[in-house]
Design goal:
The chain has about 425 residues and is an alpha/beta fold. About 55% of the residues lie in helices and about 5% in strands.
């Protein structure tokens, strides 16, 4: 094999040390302090290194990556699965030399790395998702505390962290025990349709331990809601910076049912970023899920040459992992963006008027829910790539047209089978 990259280096990153391998076989180690990273960068520049490959190990690579980019080096962040150890290569010294060799022969693929405002936006968005998961945990704690006191609000309210549920929890913590007074805090629709059920649910058995648990969970929930609000402020600031404070004036947008970010004109910001191409016209995508996708993949999807490259990167392409007579299920890492498309597919599974929902249910009956969700997610991702790269507008044809196409396929198959069996298909009257 011929080397296609001269003056290449390989870096193996750990929690306490970093090992650097050069083309001539020289290996040096540095600690992971900032001053040592500066010495490492000086060493690479002094040796005339022009391109560097390093594994994406946790978050250890982030600072070193930025520092090497600032020095003008070409830095390739690569997936650790591409540099799997061959027999005998068990040390960090050999690891960095192995990465250097693979990189010099062009055998590594480059990972997508967000930079600039997109990198900052991704940080805030992922932090927001972490806070949402933590807040949901404390919602469960509030439900548990109420149930321990036999206050059965979870059986009569769709969510206890809604406006009515939180108002009643605050009143209980303030000392209110009258169930009629608590009912008066609910929304009019609840008082009109569920008043008897709510009154029975509020007849609890209050205990000191239960009230203490409820107060702790409610305080923690409020804390994370405040953290989420602060993340929303930063997300809005970054979007304003990207659009220079002049987003598109978007009209009526698709409603966001859960965890709506408090960002003014979110749809307009995204329309400006993507040049007027509106992803929310696709089923399963709202402005919030669009924001999540943008924070993970950016707005330039042309870096993936085809939709197949894009769906493969997302981990949504079907795999071939057979060996002889064995069919193996290879467990691979799932990028965050791929998980987002899976969530969209899962939300469409029960839809009644969307063709992708019908497709998902049909495949679920034959292959199971996991394969059905993955296949539907791939269709959504491929259409998203076409929309953003090719500009092809998406029009939902509906279940009727999809079922009509399936019926025609069955008719063609039946006519073909009848021809093979020398039979005639007649239409019943």
């Amino acid at each position: 094999m011929e080397k296609i990259r001269k003056n290449a280096a390989g870096i193996d990153i750990g929690a306490s040390k970093v090992f650097v391998g050069l083309e001539d076989g020289e290996v040096r180690s540095y600690q992971t302090f900032t001053s040592d990273f500066k010495l490492l960068a000086d060493f690479l520049v002094e040796k005339g290194v022009s391109t560097v490959a390093m594994e994406a190990t946790g978050v250890y690579w982030v600072v070193l990556y930025d520092m090497l980019i600032e020095r003008g080096l070409e830095v390739w962040l690569v997936d650790g699965r591409q540099t799997k150890q061959v027999p005998g290569r068990k040390t960090d010294v050999k690891d960095c030399s192995w990465i250097q060799q693979l990189h010099s022969y062009g055998l590594l693929n480059r990972c997508f790395v967000a930079d600039g405002p997109l990198k900052e936006l991704r940080s805030y968005q992922r932090l927001r998702e972490d806070h949402l998961r933590s807040s949901s945990m404390h919602i469960n704690h509030m439900q548990k505390a109420l149930t321990e006191m036999n206050i059965r609000l979870t059986e009569v309210l769709s969510q206890i962290h809604g406006k009515s549920g939180i108002a009643m929890i605050e009143a209980i913590l303030a000392g209110e025990r009258d169930k009629h007074a608590l009912l008066s805090l609910c929304h009019e629709s609840i008082k009109k349709t569920k008043s008897e059920e709510v009154l029975k649910a509020l007849e609890g058995y209050y205990t000191q331990a239960g009230l203490f648990s409820l107060r702790q969970a409610y305080s923690a929930y409020n804390f994370y809601r405040q953290q989420i609000a602060e993340c929303d402020v930063q997300i809005e600031r970054v979007l304003e910076e990207i659009n220079n404070g002049m987003p598109t004036q978007a009209g009526k947008r698709k409603p966001i049912r859960h965890n709506r970010p408090d960002v003014e004109n979110l749809g307009g910001h995204l329309l400006s970023i993507f040049g007027g191409k509106d992803a929310s016209i696709m089923p399963g995508i709202t402005d919030y899920s669009w924001l999540q996708i943008y924070s993970e993949v950016g707005n330039d999807l042309s870096r993936w040459p085809t939709e197949k490259h894009f769906t493969s990167w997302l981990g949504l392409s079907p795999g071939q992992n057979d060996s002889g007579k064995k069919k193996k299920n290879a467990r691979k890492g799932r990028p965050k963006a791929g998980q987002l498309f899976r969530q969209m597919a899962q939300s469409l599974m029960n839809s009644k008027k969307i063709a992708l929902g019908a497709f998902c249910r049909r495949l679920k009956g034959r292959k199971g829910p996991a394969i059905a969700i993955k296949a539907t997610a791939r269709k959504i991702a491929a259409q998203f790539w076409r929309l953003m790269v090719k500009g092809a507008s998406y029009v939902e044809q509906g279940v009727a047209l999809y079922e009509e196409r399936i019926l025609k396929q069955k008719q063609r198959y039946l006519n073909k089978l009848a021809l093979e069996l020398n039979m005639v298909v007649t239409q019943s009257t």
